[in-house]
Design brief:
The chain has about 210 residues and is mostly helical. The protein has helices at about 1-25, 30-55, 60, 65-80, 80-90, 90-120, 125-145, 160-175, 180-200.
Length: about 210
């Protein structure tokens, strides 16, 4: 169980750090800005989660290994040779980035729920789902705000919605099936919904003016 949690957090950190770094590069930020954006995306959701749960200082300040991993990912993506490879295979790399971002969203969402349960098993289902979703999407919101963009969860097709549905599945199964099956199925739901939404262009209703 501990190994799987570490794996989920590692994949999420790697995926979101890459997302932040590539956004910073696209926005023509300097190396400091790119590093900061990568770290913020990777650990921002976890910081918000810990503050909501009353975990102080947040975990990233007690164990900076994930922040270091995020910064290292950003440094690698700043290497000119790596950027040339990414540019040369843009379509394939867009697919890889989509998969990494989806896995990051799924893994961080269920890890957020697991962290909430580790604090107290008596939390309401609403708080558990809220904490899971905030952990999953919080870093991306901070990335978009710092990059000067509309937060993606308000405009991207079926992103936060997938996290909400996966978090609900995870919470509903937690006591009935156990933590590992609940987390695994919650991740599967999020991943399948995100990929299906991307393939079939699912989206939420947009009211017309």
């Amino acid at each position: 169980m501990d190994f799987l949690l570490l794996l989920f957090e590692f994949l999420g950190t790697l995926a979101f750090a890459a997302s932040g770094a590539l956004t910073g590069i696209a926005k023509k930020m300097d190396i400091f800005g790119i590093l900061m954006l990568a770290v913020i995306v990777a650990v921002g959701g976890g910081i918000i989660r810990d503050l909501v749960l009353g975990i102080t200082p947040p975990a990233v300040f007690r164990d900076p290994s994930y922040a270091v991993l995020a910064a290292g990912t950003a440094v690698i993506l700043c290497i000119p040779a790596v950027r040339r490879i990414l540019t040369r295979h843009r379509k394939r790399n867009d697919t890889v980035l989509l998969l990494m971002d989806t896995v990051g969203l799924a893994s961080f969402t269920v890890v957020g729920i697991q962290t909430a349960y580790s604090v107290s098993a008596s939390f309401s289902p609403f708080l558990l789902v809220f904490v899971g979703v905030v952990t999953g999407v919080g870093g991306g919101v901070l990335r978009d705000v710092f990059a000067g963009d509309m937060p993606g969860i308000f405009v991207r097709q079926f992103y936060a919605s997938a996290a909400i549905l996966g978090a609900v599945v995870c919470v509903l199964l937690w006591n009935a099936a156990g933590s590992l099956p609940a987390m695994s199925l919650g991740m599967v739901v999020i991943i399948l919904l995100r990929l299906a939404a991307e393939k079939y262009h699912w989206g939420l209703y947009h009211p017309k003016q």
